[in-house]
Give the backbone structure.
Amino acid sequence: MRTNHMLNQQFSYVSNAAVSFGDDAIGVVDDGSYFIYGILKSQLPAQLGKFYITKSEEEVCKGKNEDRSDKVINFEVSLLGKDENQIKVDSNMLLVNVLGSHENFQSSVGLMVTRGK
């Protein structure tokens, strides 16, 4: 993950994120561009190692009176069973979400945790 500072320099947000599965990786940037195997805007859906990745876009109404809309881009990597990794681009910020069972993530290494032997 990489972060950028907001204009006031008091806060930062996630601007780039990468998720890897062995030697295979997807990288997403806060403008919605993405790289798979180092190739910009690879064709999706695609296979990332033994997992499948899809991309979807939706318009979301925002604002006090829902008078403006933003495009939200979702990247989903389908893992074992119902587990998945999600990378969401919304308002030029990224959210990385891992939805999974303990059994499938026992040997995971990441920003918040390292699990293993």
